[in-house]
Task: inverse folding
């Protein structure tokens, strides 16, 4: 079975990670390097075990464009539609593993990621099974 | 050579030579690739038992040619059955005597020219070059370009089909077409280099391999065309640029700008080799964009300190480069060199930057705002410089770049608190 693990962050979180002070303190170089090292190591292990299908980090929410249907059949495009503190998708991992429990176990490892305390307290991840029926059918 | 260990390097060197020979003899790129792969598989099994033969390339060429003949016959039979092969014949050459094998370097070069066929878009040219000439696996190329293996497989398959449909013969184009195609080849090699160099910082460490691969392939071209000054210039440029890589990031993986880099960590061997190549090329007085860029890189590399950099000379070289290339990033670099080259350079450069901003390609680019911030900082306009650094950070999507730009802004704020307010 394949599962998608989704992580979330706000523009404020991204600004902190990019070294900018907001209401919350900016990440130090050590903070940033520690997270990179942890994620690199986790991805290496998941690659070696053959469980990692793919993983991506998304650019900051401010770079988002939202496309909606307009009234006259022309799409309406909004730049940066999110509020500063709104939690939006920040990255994902697609893993292929034996059970939902194993995928959950992988997601739980993110709790060990060394990040500043205020980030850690608010962090969460979702694990969602991928609909294989559709994937196999096309 | 019997009993020699079969090294990764040997495979990577032999595969494109054998493939090149097959494609030159028979055409049919895709079939030739299958035949080469099968010959390599057979070699891996037999050589591990009985050792590497005296002439491994001839061995592989013979086996691959036989396999190719089989595959073409099968293909031909299938087509006959389908009654679609009206006037279609393949040159079924069966002998692959050692004496018939021409200089290997030329086959690798011709293969490279085929992979950079103008019917292909740059992404396809790059993928096909790395696959057929570089000998990388599809999985390795997919990883390097952050796409799935399935996507890269499709990209390569489409590229091969485009080459076939274009009816390209496996031969060197002549005259103007030759010079034009060589230009594309060099561009593809430079793109591969930059793809690796621009992203070595950050989480994608394996992409650094692309710079090594680009240098390796460019060395091959240089060996085949030692008298082409732009080929020499490109090789020099890659070496002189890659020389700075060890000092480009700090222990946390954050970017370090060139003027703050520890020059003791630069790769002295690469600098020596690059300078020697460049010196030999420019002696022919046949300048081109790669030689000019290599000369700029050499001036940076040879300066013992950032302060000792010969900015007036760099500025003159950027002006020469602007005359031969319409590249907005070159225009921005020229503005920086103007600012650094003169006592009152910042003001002159800011006026020039305003003109450059008329180019829409550049006005939205994060680097435009970073250069603007740098000039404002030089002129002592701290508040405007901070705003421009923040704008550059907002527009870039790479976190290491953003961290660098926010760091510059924060440092300005700290300095502003401790030094007297600026008049600018």
Result:
């Amino acid at each position: 079975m394949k599962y998608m693990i989704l992580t979330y962050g706000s523009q404020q979180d991204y600004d902190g990670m990019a070294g900018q002070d907001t209401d919350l303190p900016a990440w130090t170089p050590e903070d940033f390097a520690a997270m990179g090292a942890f994620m690199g190591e986790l991805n290496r292990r998941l690659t070696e075990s053959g469980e990692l299908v793919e993983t991506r980090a998304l650019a900051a929410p401010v770079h988002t464009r939202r496309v909606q249907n307009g009234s006259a059949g022309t799409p309406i495009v909004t730049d940066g539609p999110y509020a500063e503190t709104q939690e939006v998708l920040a990255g994902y991992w697609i893993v292929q593993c034996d059970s939902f429990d194993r995928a959950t176990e992988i997601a739980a490892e993110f709790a060990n990621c060394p990040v500043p305390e205020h980030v850690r307290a608010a962090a969460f991840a979702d694990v969602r099974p991928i609909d294989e029926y559709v994937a196999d059918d096309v | 050579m019997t009993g020699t260990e079969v090294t990764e390097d040997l495979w990577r060197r032999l595969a494109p030579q054998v493939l090149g020979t097959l494609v030159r003899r028979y055409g049919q790129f895709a079939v030739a690739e299958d035949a080469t792969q099968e010959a390599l598989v057979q070699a891996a099994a037999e050589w591990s038992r009985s050792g590497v033969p005296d002439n491994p390339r001839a061995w592989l060429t013979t086996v691959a040619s036989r396999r190719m003949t089989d595959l073409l016959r099968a293909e031909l039979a299938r087509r006959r059955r389908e009654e679609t092969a009206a006037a279609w014949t393949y040159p079924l050459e069966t002998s692959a005597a050692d004496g018939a094998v021409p200089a290997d370097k030329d086959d690798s070069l011709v293969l490279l020219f085929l992979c950079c066929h103008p019917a292909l878009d740059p992404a396809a040219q790059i993928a096909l070059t790395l696959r057929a000439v570089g000998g990388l696996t599809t999985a390795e190329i997919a990883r390097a370009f952050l796409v799935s293996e399935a996507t890269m497989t499709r990209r390569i398959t489409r590229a091969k089909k485009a080459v076939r449909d274009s009816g390209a013969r496996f031969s060197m184009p002549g005259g103007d077409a030759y010079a034009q195609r060589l230009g594309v080849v060099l561009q593809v090699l430079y793109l591969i280099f930059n793809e690796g160099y621009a992203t070595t910082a950050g989480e994608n460490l394996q992409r650094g391999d692309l710079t090594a691969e680009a240098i390796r392939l460019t060395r091959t071209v240089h060996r085949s065309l030692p008298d082409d000054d732009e080929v020499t210039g490109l090789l020099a440029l890659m070496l002189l640029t890659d020389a700075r890589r060890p000092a480009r990031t700090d222990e946390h993986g954050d970017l370090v700008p060139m003027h703050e880099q520890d020059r003791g960590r630069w790769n002295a061997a690469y600098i020596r080799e690059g300078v020697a190549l460049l010196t030999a090329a420019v002696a022919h007085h046949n300048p081109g964009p790669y030689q000019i860029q290599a000369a700029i890189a050499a001036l940076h590399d040879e300066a013992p300190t950032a302060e000792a950099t010969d900015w007036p000379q760099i500025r003159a070289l950027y002006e020469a480069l602007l005359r031969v290339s319409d590249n907005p990033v070159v225009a921005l670099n020229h503005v920086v060199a103007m600012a650094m080259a003169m006592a009152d350079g910042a003001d002159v450069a800011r006026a020039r930057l305003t003109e450059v901003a008329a180019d829409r390609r550049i006005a939205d680019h994060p680097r435009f705002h970073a250069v603007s911030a740098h000039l404002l900082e030089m002129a002592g306009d701290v508040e405007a410089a901070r705003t421009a650094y923040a704008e550059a950070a907002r527009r870039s999507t790479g976190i290491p770049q953003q961290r660098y730009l926010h760091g510059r802004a924060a440092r300005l704020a700290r300095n502003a608190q401790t030094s007297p307010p600026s008049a600018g």
